[in-house]
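ugh ok so i messed up the first submission bc i forgot one of the chains. this is the corrected input, ALL of the components this time, i swear. 372 residues overall. if the numbers dont match what u have on ur side tell me asap before i send this to the collaborators (the ones from the other lab, u know who)
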Amino acid sequence: MPKIKVPRKNISLDMTAMCDMAFLLLTFFILSTKMNVVEPVAVDIPSSTAKKEVPADSLMMISVDKEGKIYFGIDNQNQRLKLIDLVAQRVKIPLTDAEKHRFSTLESAGIPFGQLKMFLNKPGDKIMKDQPGIPADSLKNELILWVGLAKEINPMLRITVKGDRDSNFEHTKKIIDALQSLNLHHLSFVTNLETKPEVRR
Amino acid sequence: MAEISTGDSKDGKKRSKKTSTKVDMTPMVDLAFLLITFFMLTTNLTKKHAMAINLPDKNDIKKEQTVDKEKTVTLILGENDRIYWYVDPKKPELNVTNFSESGIRDLLDTRKKSVDTLITIIKPMKDSKYKNLVDMMDEINIADIRKSAIVDITADEEKLVAEYKKTFNIQ
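and heres the new structure output, hopefully the right one now
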């Protein structure tokens, strides 16, 4: 029998097309990605069927973590700078310009007024660790002041509450009470999307 | 792979070396996919959604509201995802249900069918979870009930729940 010669094919492929595709996808992901904001705590939010998206601007975010620590932040960096300016003035904390600037880089913070100066002087990432949360008890309520002053700077701020699934209701209650005492009656809870079940007839 | 033609020919003629213009793309593809993987993992495509809540005015709460008692259902959010509920505030008879489809959803559905303008009153207990509150608001949205309020729990109701737990031996 004659031997059948299998023609040797060059196994090297033309990678150009693949490369094109890879970079196309890469471009898509780079452009569509929104970098996760660095927050002092990870909050595991509950899900609901609410359809409305969280507005992109003029946002005031009050977060509650698992242990019930309360964090406060507004989305605009310039406004954060104004806010800390106003807070330093009203509460009479002697903050330097550098410290104020440092505060304005924080997306959200849970630092009581008493420890503000100490925290703002912590180097690097250490500022994110072990923040005690903003006191919101009836005896010492700093949350009311934060929300009130932020509203003074930008009255258009929309209030969103981002609570951890497993945080106790009493902490949410504190926030609700603080908002009510400021005569603010609209807020929204941040949730993940869940598909709405079929309406049964 | 990149090929480099050697330029040697059998007849010994010297030819000018032709370098192939083909470039090996493999490392570039590797790199591109590495970056894609990185961006895919770091990106969060899921957008956050907002559930709007309207709070009552503080001055309104102090006034004793006159609602048709028949039209309300009071839902007390307890621990371990339990819901204690009653209809008549004058002589509350507690019942217990949960967040499953046959639980709260059926309850709200049947109540809504018998009363057209149902008002739900949510009373979270101190140790109920935030998740339960959101779930509850969500169930109310699903049942398409327009009127609901988040109200503080009273001492009487806490007592009722404690009694209920005792008689039915619920942990």
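quick check: Residues 58-167 of chain B form a domain with the Nucleotidyltransferase; domain 5 fold (CATH 3.30.420). that seems consistent at least. Chain B has a mean pLDDT of 76.
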